[in-house]
Amino acid sequence: MSGALVLTGWLTGVVASAAEPRVRVDPERSAANAAMDRYADGEEEAFGELYDLLAPRLFGFASKLTRNPTAAEDVVQQTLLQMHCARDRYRRGAEVVPWAFAIARRLVIDAHRRSAYQEVLGKEDDAEPPRSTDDPLEALESKRAAEVIARTLEAMPEGQREAFILVREEGLTMAEAASVLGSTEGAIKVRVHRASEALKAALAERNRSRGAE
Amino acid sequence: MNPPDSLKARLLQTARNKPVPSRSSARTRLAGLVALALAMTAATFFVMGGPERLGARPPGLTAAMVGGVLGVAALATWLAMPRGNSMLPPSRRLLTTLVVATPVAVGLWTMLWHLSYEDPFQRFGLRCFALTLATAPWPFIAMAYLRHRMDPVSPTLTGAALGATSGAWAAVMVTLWCPIADPGHVARGHALPIVVLALAGAALGARLFRARLT
Predict the structure, then answer these.
(1) A-chain residues near B146 (CB < 8 A)
(2) CA A97, A130, A79: angle at the middle one, nearest 5?
(3) Closest to B153 (Cβ–Cβ): which among A81, A89, A179?
């Protein structure tokens, strides 16, 4: 009986995953898809446009995973070069953003495995400067909050951190994040929920300790 | 958060130094590879005396058996490739199911006809096994061209799925060539090589399909 249930669950998952992934409507993403399409059709200038649309997002993503701007820069360059090399086989109208994030993630993992960035991984995070504000107290507070978030993200299991960044910060749908991470939509939902709960708890703890001071 | 301004210039220069043809040339190349796969499969069939063997089984049954295996191969190809508007591979669950189900489906479909007619002779299955292994690389090359260094998520599973799928395409020719539906023969000569091809595809997958640092 339980075997039949497991098989039914497995097959339901297979049928669900055979369906096309849902896509979030976003003008920037549509522009990136169009630029890649034109580049695949032979319009050389479109690659620069694609860079402008993707590089900042990829750099942010890679910086959060590598904690190192130089390594992140390398990942951005390699990701876009991979896309350049695959331009002849790019499928018309395909979604560029999840593909780009999946390549970037793979390159980060490879780089970690090669220990290319081991030296810098241990260093303090110098990736993102705090947002500027006129009020120095507010600036200090937001910097401390950002530090708490960064520390909490860093302490999370890698899968949770990646799922949270892709869904909450980069705006991918659960289905797209599942494709990028090679996981199921249900697992991604759980990871994002846990990551959100951990961040909420960390920020609440920080607020409590501030109140006690 | 932005990368340094110099990166764009460097990247565009690198891309210019390493030109890649546009999509239209890939279509031509793929069409050439598919034609080559078909030609090699047909040549193998004729060299192995395929036409003489066609009369060993009722033509209607031959058509039904080959049609079923053809359906399995076409479905496996559709499932193994990215679909819709995604450039990413299908889910690991789907690919795993595909790897397991393809040899089972080809084997069961062929065995299903075992009682419909009398096998003209008995064979262990070694020639069918070897023929499947010899034919499968051609469809594999055509499919591998489409996915070469394009899979950043599950290259090993993609390799296994494409191995099993190419085995299913080879099984179409082998089913046309071999009139035997005896379960033992089918398991050894028709289904087992697909398992072997899936394992070989998995072994090659990380090398062939993975997006990696250059």
Answers:
(1) 89
(2) 25
(3) A179
Positive/negative CA dihedral, A154, A156, A157, A161: negative
Distance from CA of A13 to the nearest CA of B (A): 7
Q: What is the DSSP string of B63-132?
A: HHHHHHHHHHHHHHHHHHS--TT--SPPPHHHHHHHHHHHHHHHHHHHHTTTTTS--SS---SHHHHHHH
C-alpha Rg value of chain B to the nearest Å: 20
> Which residue matches tokens 């990136």?
A32
Question: What would the two tokens of residue A23 be?
Answer: 């896509």
Give the whole-angstrom CA distance, residue A169 versus residue A163: 10
Chain B positions in Cβ-Cβ contact with residue A99 (cut-off 8 Å): 86-88, 152
| ipTM for the complex shown | 0.85
Name the token pair of A154. 């860093």
**Hey, is A208 helix, strand or coil?**
helix
Cα angle: A82, vertex B13, A43; to 5 degrees? 70
Count CB atoms within 10 A of the CB of residue B136: 29
CB neighbours (10 Å) of residue B120?
11
In the structure encoding, which two tokens stand for residue B15, read together? 């891309």
Interface of A with B in 138-177 (CB under 8 A): none
Q: Which of B3, B94, B214 sits opposite A59 (nearest CB)?
A: B3
Q: CA distances (Å), B49 to each of A69, B23, B69, B136, B186, in order?
A: 64, 40, 21, 18, 19
How far A26 CA sits from the closest chain B CA (Å)? Answer: 15
* A158-212: pLDDT as tens digits: 888 989 989 988 888 898 899 889 889 999 999 999 999 998 888 888 778 766 6
Question: Residues 6 or more apart from A206 whose CB is under 8 A from it?
Answer: A144, A145, A148
**pLDDT (tens digit, 9 = 90+) per residue, A124-162?**
444 444 444 556 666 777 777 778 888 888 888 888 898
Would you list the DSSP string of B175-213? HHH-----HHHHIIIIIHHHHHHHHHHHHHHHHHHB---
The separation between CA B88 and the C-alpha centre of its own chain, rounded to angstroms, equals: 19
Whether the Cβ atoms of residue B145 and residue B29 lie closer than 8 Å to each other: yes
The tokens for A69 are 């701007």
